[in-house]
Amino acid sequence: MQRTSKLYAIVNGKCPQCRRGDIFTGSVFGFNIQKTNKNCANCGLRFEIEPGYFYAAMYVSYAMNMAEMIGMGFATYYLSGAKIDFDDIWLYVSVIILGSLILSPFNYRYSRIILLHLLSPKIKYKPAYDTAVK
Ligand SMILES: [Zn+2]
């Protein structure tokens, strides 16, 4: 039996229970608005396991955002040679705000994936569902 790896499922936004069905409609940076599917098309798992469950993803996305902002701040410092003083503050502010906007679809998607795959002890991988022919 061919098992799908957890890493593959996380990177590709697959269902945590069967690692086959898509959690989201559309692609990360597609022109269509990405939505979270209600149930897994392959195994039927309900992704929002209880009402308001995805509020918890906000904390994950907050942590991701902070890490990205710090990363962008350092990148700006090293790549542009800008000084850390008041004259260059707008460069930092614009890079960080613009970067956060560009990354927001990514954060939306991966905060939910991290929540479902790594922070939800109720959801377990069931290899039996991972057998559908692709
Ligand atoms: Zn599934």
For the termini, the CA-CA separation is 13 Å
User: What does the main sheet amount to?
Assistant: none
Rounded mean pLDDT is 91
Please trace the helix and strand order, writing H or E for each element. Answer: HHH
Any low-confidence stretches, pLDDT <50, length ≥5?
none
Shape descriptor reads elongated
Give the number of domains.
Answer: 1
Q: Which key terms come to mind for this protein?
A:
about 130 residues, mainly alpha, binds zinc ion
What does this structure look like?
The chain is mostly helical and 134 residues long. The chain has one domain. 46% of the residues lie in helices and 0% in strands. It has three helices and no strands. The protein starts with 5 loop residues before the first helix and ends in a 16-residue tail after the last helix. The mean pLDDT is 91. Zinc ion is lined by residues 15, 17-18, 20-21, 40, 42-43, 45, 129. Zinc ion binds next to loops.
